[in-house]
Specification:
Layout: H1 22-32, H2 60-63, E1 68-69, H3 72-77, H4 84-91, E2 101-103, H5 108-121, E3 123-128, E4 147-152, E5 159-163, E6 168-171, H6 177-185, E7 189-190, H7 203-208, H8 216-219, H9 222-225, E8 226-233, E9 236-240, H10 252-256, E10 265-272, E11 274-275, E12 279-287, H11 290-303, E13 309-313, H12 315-320, E14 337-345, H13 350-363, E15 367-368, H14 372-379, H15 384-393, E16 396-406, H16 410-424, E17 429-437, E18 441-451, H17 456-473, H18 489-511
Parallel strand pairs: 2-4, 3-4
Antiparallel strand pairs: 1-2, 5-6, 6-10, 7-11, 8-9, 8-10, 12-14, 12-15, 13-14, 13-17, 16-18, 17-18
Helix pairs in contact: 4-17, 16-17
The structure holds flavin-adenine dinucleotide (FAD).
Length: 527
């Protein structure tokens, strides 16, 4: 039996596949000049992955025969991730690079034993959480290996323990976010980590790729939530995090966070948890321009108080209505830039914080829009990826990219990305929002919509390379929360510099001397 869960050719629950509202299709035809025939995926049964090579090392003896799968469907479902090029390729029937087998360990010890055998037999290992990587984190460059396995961690899905005194919980890596949240909610707590990929991404993937959720203003980034973790490597087990903070040398937790499977497999994560909020309320604000909105959200980020959710769309994103996917198509021609503020906390604290935020935003030119825009954003907060599939179906390419920079440099970064995308992809629509804020700077999240046209994967690859150059030249980081994978590796090397890259390679060589862990991902010069 194949492993079946997420839609193989797109996003999420196949039952929830969306069709594009006619009003939106019309808007796109008008804006992008899309006249293409509908571009439906090929049939799954028609896809032929490359022949599966036998995997040496008798991994069945470690995990059990039923937990080593080599059927075509399971292999296809573990091929690459969920970026738009990934989807275009798999929809077109291209399963090149499919793993030779999918292995499902059930414990830390099984993971460790699988890694030892793979190192001995030179089998490349791709740790596989929710499979939602958008940066090629699941697409290793594994030529020259005896075989490649996807190490699917879904069986490691327990809440191992909860410490109510310290307010921490230890979670296994294969727990998908909704189940992790449910298990914590049952005991009166929340993790507060709600990325747009919430419905499918896993705890291990959040740690491995330094994820950031939509409520990061209130709950922090995932890496800030991590108090401890365990990493199984081909050289043994690394444990980090004896205390919440420590002055005992460099923080080894930080070496593991963001390591994207290149050093080993995270087999548990201890996270800080919060009491379930008694109150949740969301609202909208309108600013005359993006720059005035940026000034206002900066004031909140620097001088407080901070809402739990804080996002600001630019003029184009506001006009298209992307901040409210469920109402998409109700085109907003009123102008301005929509900000969404959300407040989660105790019934005693939220009204006070909300009133103070209101005073700040009003004094900086914001016009209160009531709760409807905020509630509408909450309703649609996980819908956009379904919309992407609907766009792909009608011949539109929709993709996102993100960066971060200091406040003093943010408008330069914004302009550089927009100009480059508009130059590389004429007739596209480029939208942006400030997605995460810090006292010193913020993250910018761009969405690009363009006609697929001829050779969309190659066109996007070239445009993405140009925009990645522009990000680095404008002083931004190549990723604020999607990670590095294979796609961003060369630009990460420019950020880290030659000595930084050499340090990473030295760590990798010590933990993974045979180079079997996700070769080519993250660390330049591998693969
Ligand atoms: C539609 C969409 C929306 C998204 N929205 C957001 C968002 O709002 N915020 C955000 O931060 N990201 C977002 N992402 C990106 C992605 O969801 C995150 O990077 C997430 O952290 C990946 O988790 P995952 O469990 O799916 O990991 P995977 O995709 O399975 O893996 C990601 C990387 O980590 C490695 N890995 C996975 N598990 C482990 C482990 N246990 N040990 C070691 N290495 C491991 C993999 O080998 C891979 O390199 C989005 C992606 C999509 C497709």
């Amino acid at each position: 039996m194949p492993i079946v869960d997420m839609l193989w050719s797109g996003w999420g629950d196949p039952e929830r596949a969306e069709r594009l509202p006619e009003s939106v299709a019309g808007l796109l035809r008008e804006l992008l000049g899309v006249h293409a025939e509908p571009a439906q995926p090929v049939k799954l049964a028609e896809i032929e992955p490359p022949p599966a090579r036998p995997v040496p090392g008798a991994l069945e003896d470690v995990v059990g025969e039923e937990h080593v799968r080599a059927d075509a469907e399971t292999r296809i479902r573990h091929t690459r991730g969920k970026s738009t090029p990934d989807l275009l390729r798999i929809r077109g029937g291209d399963a090149g690079g499919a793993p030779d087998a999918v292995v499902l360990p059930g414990s830390h010890d099984e993971v460790a034993a699988v890694l030892a055998r793979c190192a001995e037999h030179r089998v490349a290992v791709v740790p596989f959480g929710g499979g939602t990587s958008v940066v090629g984190g699941l697409a290793p460059e594994a030529g020259g290996y005896a075989a490649v396995i996807a190490l699917d961690l879904r069986r490691l899905d327990r809440l191992v323990g909860l410490d109510p005194v310290s307010r921490t919980a230890t979670l296994e890596p294969g727990l998908r976010a909704p189940r992790a949240e449910r298990l914590l909610n049952e005991q009166g707590y929340t993790l507060g980590h709600f990325p747009q990929s919430f419905e499918w991404a896993s705890i291990g993937g959040f740690a491995a790729a330094r994820s950031s959720g939509q409520a990061s203003a209130g709950y922090g980034r995932f890496d800030e939530m991590v108090a401890g973790l365990t990493l199984a490597t081909p050289s043994g087990t690394l444990e980090a995090g004896r205390a919440p903070k420590s002055a005992a040398g460099p923080d080894l937790r930080q070496l593991v966070l963001g390591s994207e499977g290149a050093f080993g497999v995270i087999t548990d994560v201890t996270v800080r948890i919060r009491p379930l909020p008694e109150t949740r309320v969301y609202e909208g604000w309108l600013f005359p321009s993006f720059s005035e909105g940026v000034t206002a959200v900066r004031a909140l980020a620097q001088d407080g108080p901070l809402p739990t959710v804080l996002r600001l769309s630019d003029e184009t994103e506001t006009m298209i209505g992307l901040a409210r996917p469920d109402e998409l198509g109700e085109r907003n021609d009123a102008g301005g830039c929509l900000a969404v503020c959300g407040y989660e906390g105790t019934a005693a604290e939220v009204p006070d914080r909300r009133a103070k935020v209101r005073a700040v935003l009003t004094s900086l030119g914001g016009a209160y829009q009531g709760e409807e825009p905020g509630e509408s954003w909450v309703r649609g907060r996980f819908s956009a990826p379904y919309l992407r599939d609907a766009l792909l179906d009608v011949g539109v390419l929709a993709e996102t990219l993100e960066t971060a920079g200091f406040w003093s440099n943010l408008s330069r970064l914004y302009d550089a990305v927009r100009l480059t995308l508009s130059r590389e992809l004429p007739s596209s629509v480029v939208m942006c929002h400030v997605s995460h804020v810090y006292p010193a700077g913020a993250s910018l999240y761009f969405t690009v919509v363009t006609a697929q046209g001829e050779r969309p994967v190659e066109r996007w690859r070239d445009a993405k390379a140009a925009v990645s150059d522009a990000i680095i030249e404008a002083g931004g980081t190549i990723s604020h929360h999607h990670g590095v994978g294979v796609d961003h590796r060369d630009w990460y090397a420019r950020e880290a510099g030659p000595l930084g890259v050499a340090v990473l390679r030295a760590v990798k060589d010590r933990l993974d001397p045979e180079g079997i862990m996700n070769p080519g991902v993250l660390i330049p010069g591998e693969g």
